[in-house]
């Protein structure tokens, strides 16, 4: 079995727990008591054990040059990173794009298509389990991260959004190469 096959077979923790939940309820378990049941604890433990075996099979993935590059890119597109820079009006504290944003800025309109990469409508911000993220704004409205204003995006920024932002930057890079 390859690393990829193992990871595909085990799936995400949420997929595994949904399957265990379905089996639990099919066998007469109380759906309301699922998360406090011994079966839930067993399912979580089994998933971690299976995932650990996949991680062993996959080897030291965290040390590969590609993962190191990806980790650095995530830092670069996160709040305070080199591609996540913005100016702030000293009176209103409202953020705006710097006078000379970098071509890879995630918060300023791109020279390639005119939209800020974080706003791209084709981006799907998801959590570690692959579930789409919604953010509750100060007005109590639920929005996708790419629907937020720049100020809201900065205020509510979550580190897991970096995964999506890296993909956005890589799309810009590929467009630049296609154009040239």
What is this entry, summarized?
Helix content is 45%, strand content 4%. The chain is built from six helices and four strands, in the order H-H-H-H-E-E-E-E-H-H.
Spans of at least 5 consecutive residues with low confidence: none
**Sequence of secondary-structure elements:** HHHHEEEEHH
- Please give the alpha-carbon distance between the first and last residues: 42 Å
Percent helix range: 40-55%
Please identify the oligomeric state.
single chain
Question: How many structural domains in the coordinates?
Answer: 2
The major pleated sheet works out as:
2 strands, antiparallel
Strand content: under 5%
The helix count comes to 6
Q: What is the total tally of β strands? A: 4
What coarse outline follows from CA principal-axis ratios?
globular
**Spatial strand arrangement across the major sheet:** 1-2
Helices and strands: which structural class? mainly alpha
Mean pLDDT: 81
Rounded to the nearest angstrom, the radius of gyration is: 21 Å
Description:
The protein has 180 residues and is mostly helical. The chain folds into 2 domains: 3-59; 65-179, no CATH class. The chain is 45% helix and 4% strand. A hairpin with a 5-residue loop joins β3 and β4. The termini are far apart. 15% of the residues are buried. The mean pLDDT is 81.
